[in-house]
Amino acid sequence: MKIIDIDGTRAYQFESFDSSVVEHRLFTRLGGVSKGIWSSLNLAGTVGDEKEAVAQNHEIMFKAFGAPLSTRFDVWQVHGTQIHFAEAPRPPEQKHKPGDAIFTDKPGITLTMRFADCIPLLFHDPVKKVIGIVHAGWLGTALQISRVAVEAIGKRYGSKASDLIVGIGPAICGNCYEVGEDVIRRFEKYWRKDYHPFFKKIKESWFLDISNANEYILRQAGVKQIEQSHICTAENLNEWYSYRKEKGLTGRFGVVFALKDSKADGKDDN
């Protein structure tokens, strides 16, 4: 992945996405104004941090990204499979809708989500000019939200799985993500088979590899172009928030994704 440092912030980019067509950043926890356990670029307003600091962090992130805050489209992440298709930015006075996947084919909209161990999955269809962000924790992975997303954009935009490019961002790794047997039972219920390779037992504890599980789901759905970050949030607290490693007392890092306006760049096909 490529590292971008701007005004004290640090963000990562996937190499697979064409930067002349889309702009994306996976921002680390560096460069914000939050103090203490939320230090410093915390984007979540429901984890105990000061609201003023969180609001300022959003402004810092969007400035570093190079887009107005008024272009933001985000949702209330609930660990489900609900998908939203953005036709316009979310008005500031409008409440967040619950969901865990957001897509758009409109330039002028900046998709954004927040993470701290769950996987940010970034989708780009260069043929239909569609982008999206998917939030997948253990439950979203058990429910196969990445497959649901592939099918949904196929119906909505006519996207073909074979055309998609997907980036799997920083998340807690299979050596750190300890889960209970209730999680295994959920996978048994929703997957029925093929889930065993993504669980391993160390002494008396079970561990789940959600990054490779999601790559498997995507490949089963027909996606061929996948790039993994191979960054574990729990092992790199200097740059990332980790809900598990920090025992819930932490912030959330931001991911932003936008289509570039081909007309503004003089690349209109007409």
Question: Describe it for me?
Answer:
The protein contains five helices and 15 strands. It is of the alpha+beta class and about 270 residues long. It has a single domain, classed as CNF1/YfiH-like putative cysteine hydrolases (4-Layer Sandwich). The strands form three sheets. It has a six-stranded mixed sheet. Strands 5-6-9-8-10-14 form a six-stranded mixed sheet.
Largest sheet data: 6 strands, mixed
Number of strands: 15
Largest sheet, order of strands side by side?
Answer: 1-2-3-15-7-4
At the fold tier of CATH, the topology name is CNF1/YfiH-like putative cysteine hydrolases
- Contiguous runs where pLDDT drops below 50 for at least 5 residues: 265-270
CATH architectural label: 4-Layer Sandwich
Class inferred from helices and paired strands: alpha+beta
Q: What is the approximate shape? A: globular
Mean pLDDT: 96
Order of helices and strands: EEEHEEEEEEHHEEHEEHEE
What radius of gyration results from the CA coordinates? 18 Å
- Whole-number count of domains: 1
Describe the secondary structure blueprint for this structure.
Layout: E1 2-6, E2 9-13, E3 22-27, H1 51-65, E4 72-73, E5 83-85, E6 101-104, E7 110-115, E8 119-125, E9 130-136, H2 138-142, H3 145-157, E10 165-168, E11 178-179, H4 181-190, E12 199-202, E13 205-208, H5 210-220, E14 225-228, E15 253-259
Parallel strand pairs: 4-7, 5-6, 10-14
Antiparallel strand pairs: 1-2, 2-3, 3-15, 6-9, 7-15, 8-9, 8-10, 11-13, 12-13
